[in-house]
Amino acid sequence: MAIEVVRRAIASIGRGAAWLTLAMVLLIFTVVLLRYGFSLGWIWLQESVSYLHAMVFMLAAAWTLQEDAHVRVDVFYRDRSPRYQAMINLAGTLLFLVPLCVFMLLAAWGYVMRSWGVLEGSPEAGGLPLVYLLKTLILLLPTLLLLQSVCGLLDAWRVWRGSTVTGSSH
Fold first, then answer.
1. Of 3, 88, 147, 163, which residue is the least packed, with the fewest Cβ within 10 Å?
2. Would residue 170 count as lying in a domain?
3. Which residues contact 149 (CB under 8 A, 6 or more apart)?
4. In which domain, by residue range, is 44 found?
5. pLDDT at 16 over 70
6. Structural domains of the chain, count
């Protein structure tokens, strides 16, 4: 089923992005060691940390939602029935997450396309010439969240209707 392909893809992207955290820590250690131990530094190396940070956050957000590991203000959620929780998930996704993602896509599209149009690079001498790829993450974040929204809506709908949830990772 196509929805299972989406679930697996989001989980794979999220797990891959999670591993970038280790790369980021090692890179930060290297930057600090080079700077303070050997008085060496390169702009591209420092910018790489920012790129990795953006990738971790923007590529793992949908997976975090899939795993129900996101921050939730659960005053009206935690102690409720699964059916009530499903109703909250349906409403929250349709009223807040989907419109926010659509807005992000519409607002960022031109910004990202202009960056691709000139193959935008770093404004710093010696920086990474890949700013257009970094800005592409601005479109990937809402796209992945929208895909996960479909999965979450299907799961919540099944629970709300009293069916069993299949294919959910939790």
1. 163
2. no
3. 93, 97, 98, 101
4. 2-161
5. yes
6. 1
Q: Which residues, other chains included, contact 85 with Cβ-Cβ below 8 Å and sequence gap of 6+? A: 77, 159
Q: Which pairs from 79-82 meet CB under 8 Å and 24+ separation?
A: 82/159
Say how far apart CA 14 and CA 7 lie, in whole Å. 11
Q: Is residue 167 assigned to a domain?
A: no
Residue 168 lies in a domain: no
Q: How many CB atoms lie within 10 A of CB 16?
A: 14
Q: In the predicted model, is pLDDT for residue 49 greater than 80?
A: yes
Q: Do residues 99 and 111 make contact, with C-beta atoms less than 8 angstroms apart?
A: no
Please check whether residue 169 lies inside any domain of the structure.
Answer: no
Residue 76 Cα to chain centre, angstroms:
26
Q: How far is the C-alpha of 159 from the C-alpha of 107, rounded, in Å?
A: 34
Tell me how far apart the alpha carbons of residues 55 and 65 are, in angstroms, rounded to a whole number.
Answer: 16
How confident is the model over 120-157, as pLDDT tens digits? 999 999 999 999 999 999 999 999 999 999 999 999 88
Cβ-contact 138, 115 below 8 angstroms:
no
The pTM assigned to this predicted structure is 0.87
